[in-house]
């Protein structure tokens, strides 16, 4: 079974989109190409702001639901704690 990740995208309007995937960078490219979620299509460009590894799909989906219930400020704090090594 492949690793899964929860991710947060920061949209151009300052909102956050939460999802899960097996490849966060690929998924962010799909969103920016307009082939992601309907929510992000009208809020381009998006930036990968947070990635959290998960052991499997079920856990990733559970964590996605938890993150979606967080307030905007809590999501901001989560993103602020994240260091994206691929952007350095």
TrEMBL record:
Residue stretches making up the GIY-YIG domain: 2-77
PROSITE patterns membership: GIY_YIG
InterPro entries: GIY-YIG_endonuc, GIY-YIG_endonuc_sf, UPF0213_domain
Pfam families found in the cross-reference section: GIY-YIG
Transmembrane stretches, start-end: none
Family, as annotated: Belongs to the UPF0213 family.
Protein name stated in the entry: GIY-YIG domain-containing protein
């Amino acid at each position: 079974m492949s690793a899964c990740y929860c991710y947060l995208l920061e949209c151009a309007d300052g909102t956050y989109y939460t999802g899960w995937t097996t490849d966060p960078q690929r998924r962010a490219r799909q969103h920016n190409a307009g082939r992601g979620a309907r929510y992000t299509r009208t809020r381009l460009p998006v930036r990968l702001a947070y990635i959290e590894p998960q052991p499997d799909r079920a856990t990733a989906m559970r964590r996605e639901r938890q993150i979606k219930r967080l307030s905007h400020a809590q999501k901001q704090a989560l993103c602020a704690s994240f260091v994206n090594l691929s952007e350095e």
